[in-house]
Specification:
The complex is a heterodimer of chains A (132) and B (124). Chain A is mostly helical and 132 residues long. Chain A is built from 4 helices and no strands. The interface between A and B is large, with 44 and 51 residues.
Chain lengths: 132, 124
C-alpha cells in the first residue's frame, strides 16, 4: 500500500445527505461549470476584446446587447458566488476556531455574498441595452 | 517550510489551490462592485477600466488569469481523483500534467494580454 497524503485529494465527502454533503457536491458541480463559464468569460474579456476598447457604453450597447450574454454572465455570477463564498467558508472554518470571531466572519461573509447577489443581479436586469 | 515539510506535491497543490482561490474570491468581490458601476456610475466605471488597460493593470490580469487557470486545472485533478479514486496513486503525474497545460496555455495568454504594450515597443 502506497502512503498517500490526504491533501493530494480534495476535501473528503461529508457523511450523510445533509447541508455539508450538499455543499460538497455542489462545489464540484459549480467547479465544472466555472471551468467553462469563468475561463470563457476571461477569454472573451481579455483575448477577444481588449480592455482598452471597453467602456460602460460598450457594455450596454455591445457586450450585453443580447439576452444570451446577460444570461451567461448572470449564470456565471450565481456559480461563482456559490463556489467562492463556500470556498472561503471552508478556509475560515479551517483557521478560525473562536466562536465569536467565527460568527462575526461568517455573518460578514454571508452579508457580502447577499450584497453582491443583489448588485450583480440588479445591474444585469436593469442596465438599458443599446446606446445611451 | 515548503522544502522541509514532507507533504511534497500534494501539499503544494493544496496550498496553491487555496491561495489562488482566495485571490480569485477577492477579485470577484471587486469585479461585481465595478460592474455594478456600469449602471450606477458609468463614468467611475470608465475610470476603473483605464486601470485595467494600463501596464500594471495588465500584469494584474495575467496574475488573475494564472490563478484562474491553476485553480481550474487543479480543480479538474481533484475531480478526477474524487470520481476515480484509483487515480489517487497517480496524483503527482496529474499535477505535473496540469502544469504542462498551464504553461502551454498560459504563455500565449500572457502574450495576448500584453500585446498592446509589447508590440509597439518592438516596433510591430
Amino acid at each position: 500500500m502506497i502512503a498517500i497524503d490526504p491533501r493530494s485529494r480534495g476535501r473528503s465527502r461529508p457523511q450523510g445527505s445533509g447541508f455539508e454533503a450538499f455543499v460538497w457536491y455542489f462545489m464540484r458541480v459549480t467547479g465544472v461549470m466555472l471551468f467553462v463559464l469563468a475561463l470563457a468569460h476571461f477569454s472573451i474579456m481579455h483575448f477577444v476584446f481588449d480592455p482598452a476598447n471597453q467602456s460602460a457604453q460598450w457594455i450596454a450597447s455591445q457586450r450585453w446587447n443580447q439576452l444570451i450574454w446577460r444570461a451567461f454572465d448572470w449564470l456565471l455570477l450565481m456559480t461563482v458566488l456559490f463556489h467562492s463564498f463556500m470556498g472561503v467558508r471552508t478556509v475560515l472554518s479551517d483557521y478560525v476556531h473562536s466562536g465569536r470571531a467565527r460568527l462575526f466572519l461568517m455573518s460578514t461573509l454571508y452579508i457580502v455574498a447577499a450584497m453582491l447577489f443583489v448588485m450583480g443581479t440588479s445591474v444585469v436586469l436593469t442596465l438599458p441595452s443599446g446606446t445611451r | 517550510m515548503l522544502l522541509r515539510y514532507r507533504g511534497r506535491e500534494g501539499m503544494l497543490a493544496w496550498a496553491f489551490h487555496r491561495i489562488s482561490g482566495v485571490a480569485i474570491f477577492l477579485f470577484v468581490v471587486l469585479h461585481v462592485i465595478d460592474i455594478y458601476l456600469v449602471g450606477g456610475d458609468p463614468r467611475a466605471y470608465d475610470t476603473i477600466l483605464k486601470v485595467y488597460a494600463s501596464v500594471p493593470g495588465r500584469i494584474m490580469e495575467i496574475l488573475l488569469g494564472a490563478a484562474l487557470l491553476y485553480h481550474a486545472l487543479n480543480g479538474l485533478r481533484i475531480l478526477i481523483i474524487d470520481l476515480w479514486p484509483a487515480m489517487t496513486v497517480h496524483h503527482r503525474f496529474l499535477w505535473y500534467a496540469s502544469w504542462v497545460i498551464f504553461v502551454a496555455v498560459g504563455i500565449p495568454a500572457a502574450y495576448i494580454i500584453l500585446k498592446p504594450v509589447i508590440d509597439p515597443a518592438l516596433g510591430l
